[in-house]
Amino acid sequence: MSLLVLIESVPGWNDKTPEEIYDFLAAPTVEISDPAFWTWAGIEKFGGADCAQELCAFLKANGKEHMIYQLGGKGLVISDNDVQQMLYYLHSIGKPGMLTLALMGKRTISALEASGISTSIEEISLVQRKRMLEYDATNRLQAYREALSSWNGSGEEPVL
Question: What angle (nearest 5°) sits at the alpha carbon of residue 9, between those of residues 31 and 104?
């Protein structure tokens, strides 16, 4: 995806300032969700051993043994809303590694980050201005073509 396509994806981009476009593109609006099945190995690798132990203890204490078995087998989708809610709860009570896991499962990033484009307000300004000039040139050419089509040879010929 090009910067121009990204700029044109902003509603009303041609009426916005480069700063407004940058702010829109830099705001976290794109949800990234990991559909993968996570096992205990992944929980420990990314959350740490303490995280895995705390999660196991919580699941046991709350009658969710089926989740313990899932994590030991095929795995558990940590982007699932119920799992996300549980991970954020465990983070809120100070359990280690839970926020890391929650964010690996589901997070919101900016359109710039999602596209892999790094830019500045100055670059956005230049790309926006060039596109507006292209539109002006296209409109002038179209008006010339229309005048040329209706010109019958008498009088002055149309000027571009």
Answer: 15
